[in-house]
Amino acid sequence: MWRRWGFFRQFKLNLIRLIRLRAEPDAVARGMALGLFIGMTPTFGVQMGIALFFAFLLRQNKIAALIGVWNTNPLTAPFIYGLEYEVGRVLLGIARPYNLDAFTYEALTELGWQVLAPLCLGSLVLGIPVAAIGYALTVRFVPVMRQWRIPRWPRRRQEDISSDE
Known about the structure:
- By secondary structure, the protein is an all-alpha fold.
- It has one domain.
- It has helices spanning 6-19, 25-39, 47-58, 62-68, 77-92, 105-111, 113-145, 158-164.
């Protein structure tokens, strides 16, 4: 059954990795804040590489940075990027583009800075508070979470495995 719920399983495994880190809560929180900030940038697809690069460069916790990037995943990315675009558009005073028939690569290159500038500004405006809140929550919750006993996933019984074959 749990194999059908891959997203929840991945979330639990990432939580276990975060809890088992043998670093101070402050170090874990700094790595998480870095990952959350990079996760808010419009670099979907290469965020984990960027987070790992900056974690090495800034000597932050690499695993926490990689886990923090998961704030933008295929389920949340449309909402996050849409909110970032709207925030940036309002701050720059740009009207909504009316000639956007489809959200494709060709349409995006035609619009150019009308989309990219508000998206980048919105990611900075929203990324800083998200990183700060993530830092504060991680510093407080890492010591608490280390005391939790997280149970294993239910294992399939042998007769269940043989009946599937």
